[in-house]
Design brief:
Elements lengths: L1 E5 L3 H12 L3 E5 L8 H7 L2 E2 L2 H4 L5 E4 L21 E4 L5 H4 L3 H4 L4 H9 L4 E2 L6 H6 L11 E4 L4 H13 L3 E4 L22 H10 L2 H18 L5 H12 L1
Parallel strand pairs: 1-2, 1-4, 2-3, 4-5, 5-6, 7-8
Length: 244
């Protein structure tokens, strides 16, 4: 596939590298322009472009940007064909993104994103820590492979994105439609807890929307307070414990 990725941070750059490695043609963009990511793109096997070029002549676009930045993409997809798949990897964190009343009121994050960019999205790769994505993806023949949830309203588009997630080294679980994609948002048992497919299915079923925002705030406060003393395994364990 020809894939445009907007966002060259830990998630976006890792996805560029992993997807290029299995034969996909990748264009990588960010908000500062191609010169600022030339080295990152070259290391990943991608081509550095502008965000406008990243959505041109591609089969799919992966958006890996801060949640609030979706407001800046309101016109980006106006001329992009309807058959181009758009993937949302973002998560809402009020301390970083500012308060967004609709999301605070219970609107699923991915639904809010579709409203900002005026395009339906598939929600994927949001419920994984950057280090997990980079280091813990394995061949599907390996036992106990970590699974990631994928949500969306278009079954065909969701299926293609699930194939891409599999190509990055993870099993997938169909998490349903965007209306219930809150089940894989921060503060839920499915979020950054490194579960197998069967465990993830159970976690999605157990998600409690009323508790998730409070869980998210408890966890981010603890993580910020502990700083560099917090290991990757600590983060996974705390996510599991607080959201159980």
């Amino acid at each position: 596939m020809k894939i445009g990725i907007i966002g060259a941070g830990n998630i976006g750059a890792t996805l560029a590298r992993k997807l290029a490695a299995v034969g996909h043609e990748i264009k990588l963009a960010n908000s500062k322009g191609p010169e600022s990511i030339r080295d990152i793109a070259a290391e990943a096997g991608a081509t550095a472009t502008t965000k406008e070029e990243a959505v041109t002549g591609v089969d799919a676009v992966i958006l890996s940007i801060p949640f609030a930045a979706y407001r800046d993409l309101a016109t980006l997809f106006e001329t992009v064909p309807d058959n181009v798949i758009v993937v949302d990897t973002s998560n809402y964190y009020p301390f970083r993104d500012g308060s967004i009343s609709d999301v605070d009121g219970g609107k699923p994050e991915a639904v809010w994103v579709t409203e900002q960019i005026k395009r339906p999205v598939i929600k994927a790769w949001n419920a994984v820590l950057a280090a997990t994505l980079e280091k813990k993806g394995v061949d599907r023949t390996q036992p106990g492979r970590i699974a990631l949830p994928v949500a969306g309203d278009d079954p065909a588009a969701k299926s293609r994105v699930m194939e891409l997630v599999e190509a990055t080294g993870f099993d997938t679980v169909d998490a349903g439609e965007l209306a219930t994609s809150w089940r894989q948002q921060p503060g839920t048992p499915a979020y950054c807890t490194e579960l197998t497919a069967e465990e993830l299915k159970s976690a999605l079923e157990k998600a409690d929307q009323k508790r998730s925002a409070d869980n998210r705030e408890v966890l981010i406060k603890e993580f910020m307070e502990r700083g560099d003393s917090l290991t990757h395994d600590d983060m996974v364990a705390r996510n599991r414990a607080v959201t159980a």
